Amino acid sequence: MVSVSDRKLPFFVYGTLRPGEANHGLFLRGRTRSEEPGRLVGAVLYDGPGYPYAVWGRGGVVHGEVVTALPEAYGELLAALDRLEEYVPGDPRNLYERVECEVTLGGEGRAVRAWVYVAAPSVAARLRARGTPIGSGDWLVRG
């Protein structure tokens, strides 16, 4: 995991941005070149107020999609996703942090680097203490 940089990486989405979920059409439709199943190893998925949080934790796997933006839409998409996640670099009030992580593509098992919005440290601490983990690691089958 490394901090935010100017690299144009794909995005790993695991909640409301996944296909069939509310924010997929609003934010991703027409802006992506590809969307492939993927997984983030070393994180636990927690239920949030209408959306999930990925929290670093041993033994966990979070399922989602690796989304590659169209080159001409990248800057606009990055800004839109930062706004959606209410992420401002360095702001201690962030609910999420955007970090560069290694994600495994589902079908191929190949590792790629991607931006992932994970729970900010204060949010992660609260979730570990009294949050509700999603045992499957998959927001779409949270039951």
TrEMBL record:
InterPro entries: AIG2-like_dom, GGCT-like, GGCT-like_sf. It comes from the Bacteria. Pfam families: GGACT. Residues 11-140 form the Gamma-glutamylcyclotransferase AIG2-like domain. CDD domains: GGCT_like. Transmembrane segments: none annotated. This is Gamma-glutamylcyclotransferase AIG2-like domain-containing protein. The lineage of its organism: Bacteria, Bacillati, Actinomycetota, Actinomycetes, Kitasatosporales.
